[in-house]
Amino acid sequence: MEYLSQADPILGQAITRLGKLERKVMPDMFSALVYAVIGQLISAKAAGTVWGRMQRELGEITSGNLSGYTAEQIQSCGITRRKAINIRQIARTIEQGELSLDELHSLPDEEVIARLTSLPGVGRWTAEMLLLHALQRPDVVSWGDIAIRRGMKKLYQLDQLDKAQFNRYCEKYAPVGSVASIYLWVISFE
User: Fold this and answer.
1) CATH classification of 29-133 is 3.50.50.60, yes or no?
2) Distance from first CA to last CA of the chain, Å, rounded?
3) Confidence bin at 22 (pLDDT 50/70/90)
4) What is the rounded average pLDDT of the residues 7-33?
5) Whole-number Cα distances in Å, 79 to 49, 56, 57, 135
6) Residues of the chain above pLDDT 90, percent
7) Other C-beta atoms lying within 10 Å of the C-beta of residue 170
8) Could you give the CA distance from residue 82 to residue 88 in angstroms, rounded to a whole number?
9) By the 8 A CB rule, do 31 and 38 touch?
10) Angle between the 146-156 and 9-18 helix axes, to the nearest 10 degrees?
11) 2-23+141-188, what's its fold?
12) Which residues lie below 8 Å from residue 169, measured CB to CB, with a gap of 6+?
């Protein structure tokens, strides 16, 4: 927080106003991955509702457990058919040892993104959310996250935000961009 306040006084004012924010962390890589897939293109509230329903109706969110359900059973928790198929396929891929989520802890960010985006239904944004919320990487600011971009626009009073501007702000935030992301999310919903 101190570093960001020094590096960017405008963000620093928002940090002072908002105070210390807590970030939600999901250290279990598989459940974090499933949660991120659920959360694609829906509100955080809707994702939380589906997540709770999955836990109640399907039980523990593990690759072994979810690979035993049909896509229809997974879909019945309130997600699209495509997401249900992808979650089931991801569970099977992990369960069959085709991708080790444990190995991701020791890899650089871009390699983690490359491995995760090889899974069905996992794009760059989803991989970046895992970097941030599961692997707790320090410098993740996702261009693909609409709320982060909206937060930047509000914070800096911009009508438009292009990728070059976004990248300049990210350079200011480095090497603690993940903290900036958390503040930008909150700012976007103010």
Assistant:
1) no
2) 19
3) confident
4) 95
5) 10, 15, 13, 25
6) 95
7) 19
8) 10
9) no
10) 110
11) Endonuclease Iii, domain 2 (1.10.1670)
12) 8, 141, 152, 156, 180
Both structure tokens of 150:
């909206």
> Amino acid identity of 162?
D
* pTM attached to this predicted model: 0.91
What are the extents of the domains in the chain? 2-23+141-188, 29-133
* Token pair listed for 108: 């650089």
Element (H, E) at 75: helix 71-75
SS3 state at 85: helix
Instruction: Note the pLDDT tens digit of each residue in 135-165.
Output: 999 999 999 999 999 999 999 999 999 999 9
On the question of a common fold for 2-23+141-188 and 29-133, the answer reads: no
Question: What was the pLDDT predicted at 85?
Answer: 97
Residue 91 corresponds to which tokens in the numbers above? Answer: 């569970």
